[in-house]
Structure formats: structure tokens, C-alpha cells
Amino acid sequence: MKKFKRIFALLGAVLLVLLYVSTFIFALIDHSASKGLLKASIACTILLPVLLYAFTLVYKLTGKDDDSSKS
């Protein structure tokens, strides 16, 4: 389970970096669709960490954290 958590954390970090890069690129592009894409990218940049935190909190509260019982 520990390996799964590390992989999940790494994927989340990579996804956040990609969202930051896309937000920067959309801010620099002068295209008709870039305004909507910029708004969506900023919203995902805010919502993704909040959702990841909520999922981990619910996971811990349901008592299915196997790593804490092994310590």
C-alpha cells in the first residue's frame, strides 16, 4: 500500500506541474479560446489539490489505512 501511495503522490505532483505549465502557456497565448482554457486551467489547479486532500481524508476516516496498523 505504501508503494501505491507514493505512485499516487508522484502522479498528483506531475499533474499539478503540468497544470501550472498549461496555465502559464494559456496566459501568454493570444487566441479566442485561450481565455476559457486559462479559466479552466486555473480552476483545475485549485480544485485538484482540494479533491486529493478530501479523498485522502475520507480514506483515513474510513479506517482502511493499513500502514498505521503495521507500525
What's the total number of strands?
Answer: 0
- Tell me, rounded to a whole number, the average pLDDT: 80
Largest sheet: none
The assigned structural class equals: mainly alpha
**What coarse outline follows from CA principal-axis ratios?**
elongated
Distance between the termini: 13 Å
Count helical runs. Answer: 3
The sequence of SSEs as H and E is HHH
Residue stretches low in confidence (pLDDT < 50, at least 5 long) are none
The fraction of residues in strands falls at under 5%
* Rounded Rg: 17 Å
Helix content: over 70%
Q: Could you explain the architecture of this structure?
A:
It is a single chain. 85% of the residues lie in helices and 0% in strands. It contains three helices and no strands. With 71 residues, the chain is mainly alpha-helical. Helix 1 packs antiparallel against helix 2. The two termini are 13 Å apart.
List the helices and strands and how they pair.
Blueprint: H1 2-28, H2 34-61, H3 66-70
Helix pairs in contact: 1-2
Q: Concise description?
A:
By secondary structure, this protein is mainly alpha-helical. It has helices at residues 2-28, 34-61, 66-70.
